[in-house]
C-alpha cells in the first residue's frame, strides 16, 4: 500500500468539509450584497450555520459600508487553512503569498460558480414551476440572488416568443469573464 491510499480519501474529506462551509459562507455574503430577504427559511439556515464563527469576528471587524469584512476575512482564512492542509498532505506547504493569491483565486472562482449554477437552477425551476404558481423559498432566494445580473440583460434582450434568453447571455458572459480572470491566480489543488 502506498501513502496515497490513505491520503486521497483524507484530502477528499477535508476538501468536502471546508468547501461546504466556504460555500455556505459565500452564499451568505452574496445574499447580503444583493439584499436578499433573510426571513427566507434557506437564508435563515445559512445564517444559523455561519453565525458561530462570524459573530466573534464581527466584534473586531465591523463592516465597511456594505462590505462585510468579517465574512471576507473568514472566507480567506478558511480557504488558506484548507489549501495549507491539503497542500501539505499532497506535497509541501506553499509560501504565504502564494497561499493568499491561490485563496483569492479560489474565492473569485467560487463566486462565478455560485452565480452560474444558481442561474441554471433558476432557469430549470422556471420551466418546472413558473414563478407566481407557488411560493418556494429556494425559488425566491434564487430570484434575489440572480436578479441583479439578469435584469440588465433583460433590459437589452427582449423576450423571443415568450422565451427569456437573458440567463443564457449572462451565463455566457460569466464564463467568458471567468476565463479571463481565473488564470491570473495560481491553483494549488
TrEMBL record:
<dbReference type="InterPro" id="IPR003425">
    <property type="entry name" value="CCB3/YggT"/>
</dbReference>
<feature type="transmembrane region" description="Helical">
    <location>
        <begin position="165"/>
        <end position="185"/>
    </location>
</feature>
<keyword id="KW-1133">Transmembrane helix</keyword>
<comment type="similarity">
    <text>Belongs to the YggT family.</text>
</comment>
<keyword id="KW-0472">Membrane</keyword>
<feature type="transmembrane region" description="Helical">
    <location>
        <begin position="67"/>
        <end position="90"/>
    </location>
</feature>
<protein>
    <submittedName>
        <fullName>Hypothetical conserved protein</fullName>
    </submittedName>
</protein>
<dbReference type="Pfam" id="PF02325">
    <property type="entry name" value="CCB3_YggT"/>
</dbReference>
<feature type="transmembrane region" description="Helical">
    <location>
        <begin position="6"/>
        <end position="31"/>
    </location>
</feature>
<keyword id="KW-0812">Transmembrane</keyword>
<dbReference type="GO" id="GO:0016020">
    <property type="term" value="C:membrane"/>
</dbReference>
Amino acid at each position: 500500500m502506498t501513502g496515497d491510499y490513505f491520503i486521497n480519501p483524507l484530502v477528499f474529506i477535508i476538501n468536502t468539509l471546508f468547501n461546504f462551509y466556504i460555500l455556505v459562507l459565500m452564499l451568505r455574503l452574496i445574499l447580503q450584497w444583493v439584499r436578499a430577504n433573510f426571513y427566507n427559511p434557506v437564508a435563515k439556515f445559512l445564517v444559523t450555520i455561519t453565525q458561530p464563527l462570524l459573530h466573534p469576528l464581527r466584534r473586531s471587524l465591523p463592516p465597511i459600508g456594505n462590505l462585510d469584512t468579517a465574512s471576507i476575512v473568514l472566507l480567506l482564512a478558511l480557504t488558506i487553512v484548507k489549501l495549507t492542509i491539503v497542500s501539505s498532505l499532497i506535497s509541501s506547504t506553499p509560501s504565504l503569498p502564494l497561499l493568499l493569491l491561490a485563496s483569492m483565486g479560489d474565492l473569485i472562482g467560487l463566486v462565478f460558480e455560485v452565480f452560474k449554477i444558481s442561474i441554471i437552477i433558476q432557469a430549470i425551476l422556471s420551466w418546472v414551476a413558473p414563478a407566481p404558481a407557488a411560493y418556494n423559498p429556494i425559488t425566491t432566494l434564487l430570484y434575489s440572488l440572480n436578479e441583479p445580473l439578469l435584469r440588465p440583460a433583460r433590459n437589452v434582450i427582449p423576450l423571443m416568443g415568450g422565451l427569456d434568453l437573458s440567463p443564457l447571455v449572462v451565463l455566457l458572459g460569466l464564463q467568458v469573464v471567468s476565463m479571463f480572470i481565473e488564470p491570473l491566480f495560481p491553483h494549488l489543488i
